[in-house]
Amino acid sequence: MIHSRIIGTGAYAPKKVLTNHDLEKMVETNDAWIVERTGIKERRICEKGQTTSDLATEAAHRALKAAGIAAADLDMIICGTLTPDTAMPSLGCVLQARLHAKKAAAFDVYAACSGFLYGLSIADAFIKSGMHQTILVVGAEALSRFTDWEDRTTCVLFGDGAGAAVVQRHAGKRGILSTHLHSDGTFGDLLHLPAGGARHPATHDTVDKRQHYIKMKGNETFKVAVRALEDVVQEALEHNKVKPEDIDLLIPHQANLRIIQAMAKRLDMPMEKVVITIHKYGNTSAASIPMALDEAVRDGRIKENDLLLLEAFGGGLTWASALIRW
After folding, report:
1. Same structural domain, 158 and 182
2. Does pTM top 0.85 for this prediction?
3. Does one domain contain both 141 and 29?
4. Of residues 46, 79, 113, 155, which has the active-site annotation?
5. Is the dihedral of CA 75, 93, 285, 194 positive or negative?
6. Which of 3, 132, 180, 253 does the annotation list as catalytic?
């Protein structure tokens, strides 16, 4: 049986830390409120001049080192991001050049917080089809560049970071068992970035109206997210004929601790079996799952043959899950 197996992971977060107490000096908020509503205590923020590609490059180098392969061996690079350095070239192409991965095709996946799982699904399909052998999947974001630091409802949520995974063809029972992708564009206005695209190109007016920052309807997004995640998690379990108690570790998108707790409760899963990083990184969108995965790999929580359930929900709206036998 042919599977796509993750053979190396890596992650990187900027050194600059922005705590809730720092935010108290910037907007009308407080540490207790932020922790209670989100579970976030601090987040990492890019330094001046630091970009998404800088974060992605460092995470990619670490993943390649862990996998024990050279960038020249990569057949493809897939980047999940909504904050590339530029609209063109893509983050994937910038990363391909930096890594000197000369034979790798490269492109971006624009699925917001679900971007890494979308990219993982694409990599899985390419490998199982026999077209490619080794693929680098990256989730990287510099959300601080698109955060309105005057909006207390959103600026407390987001952070910067990158995570990466090297996926390779594997003959055996271990690897990606299935991926499940969904979207619903009718809810697009719940979480969006109004200006900067073809509909509303950058003008003095769009800048004055602060339309180049992330906008979110929090309560409505929360309700849709919990329902969608419950469905896509159940889909993964039923597809593979496994029960919640068979899952060794849940690795969720780190958007809100209350959403993560709600999912664990629905699965009747103790929080000890859930990887939590939101308290120190905030919501890093497409980077959150690969960063959490890398942390669990490196601290020994993930062991050979463990069954991992990954799930994400993001703007678009998009949502996804993946079941992996490590």
Report:
1. no
2. yes
3. yes
4. 113
5. negative
6. 253
